[in-house]
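Ticket #4471: structure export looks truncated?
Reporter: QA, pipeline team
Priority: medium

Steps to reproduce: submit the single chain below to the structure queue and open the exported record.
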Amino acid sequence: MLVRKSLLAAATASVLAMAPASAQSLRYANQGDLKSLDPYTLNESTTHAHLGQVFEGLVARDKDLKVIPGLAERWETPEPTRWRFHLRKGVKFQNGDPFTADDVVFSAERVRKKGSNLQTRIAPDAKVVKIDDHTVDFILTTPNPILNSQWDTWYIMSKKWAEANNAAEPTPAAATTPSFASLNANGTGAFSVESHQPGVKTVFKANPNWWRKAEHNIKEIVFTPIGSDATRVAALLSGEVDVIEPVPIQDISRVDSSPNAQVMKGPEIRTIFLGMDQVRDELLYSSVKGKNPFKDVRVREAFFKAIDVELIKTRVMRGLSAPSALMIAPQLFKHSGDFTRPKFDPDGAKKLLADAGYPDGFEVTMDCPNDRYVNDAAICQAVVGMLARVGVKVTLLAQPKAQYFAKVLKPGGYQTSFYLLGWTPGTLDAHNVLFDIMGCRDDPKSNRGEANLGGYCNKKVDELADKVLQEPDTAKRDLMIKEAFEIGAKDFGYIPLHQQALAWGVSKKVKLNQRADNQVLLYWATKQD
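Actual output as written to the record:
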């Protein structure tokens, strides 16, 4: 019997040794779930990365975040308000249907529909015109020299597939019942979805007909959400999974000292910040009735000065964060060094609250994800304690990101009074922050301010953002950006906290590329036997 087992083991080893390098299964775990496969449900980096294994945009970004051709092999601007994209020929969706201009026009319409969380990808008044099967024009009302800079995550869907499966409408993040597009996918990318069980497991299979030359040797990706930090780390160290994101800060040294895994570290360009509802006449979740305390700049300044970002850095982030004075990472704006964050001043915060008519503070609920950013719930808990010291009683509602985003984003009605959010500008440009996060959302015909959950609004910022978009002179443009950020800082419209650090746990058998946008893209992964 032992001989037979030994022979079987030897035969198995021989088969594995002869298997091609592509025959590898990679197991990946993240702290958050992949709820929907609909590429327009959630404008969030982790979701974009998951779906980027399956779908592709007209453009892509390389390993250094440079814009490169994707489903469009080239493009030009025959005039300032018209972009022409020449589509790649011979590309097929994973069900075998050809990719054509009809899919681009359809996707441009779908991404701007109600329920989409990516409406800012294309202006609502832009016209998308099919010239022929492989040429599409985008006709704008005003010039936009960075039009395609975040189209690497505007993924193109199959018109025929979507219409045949009653999936022509986007699936909103607040949807309570799954749509066909949230449970199934049909892209042109490196992997196809074999099975999807939200909250349990998603299995991706290599696409043998991918138009690109594969740089990976992965035959299968098995994604499992593991919310527990301890369980996620244990799975990596035991070899149960090959890649985890993120590695809890407190476990970085333990992973690095293990024999079979290591932590890939680096700076991230995501800014973590706090926002306040400045639109409603009465907050949804507060003890203050008949008025909104956050409409008073003194209250917003008091909250800002009550937060000790250095303590968050040392105690919560264990040194792995860079406190920020701005709503953008310093790598993305050259004049960031000209800004200084107001000092932590709890006594000053108390005085500001008293001057505003709240000498005893007030109560408010804070919305926070507990599985999206590094130590997100712990950051929120620290903020709760800091505000308590100035008399503000905060009730913390920390939820998994699926429930959190369903509640606070536009499709859910911006149902929040005070919240924590993180933002990486998809264009890697300050205009994105000025438009999406700091832009007024009072015009129903515009998608400006789509991610402005608290409704901060200063029309001067909007005017500057519009000029920034069209200004060709870099020096003049940077000064406009600086002026807009100065206005936002004076208004205390937001409370920037920090840029977090990247920390991926990776088996020593796996090689990955780590980008500063924190997208774990496994079509660049290789795994040894």
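Status: closed, not a bug. The export was complete when the record was re-opened. Leaving a note from the reviewer for reference: The first strand starts at residue 25 and ends at 30.
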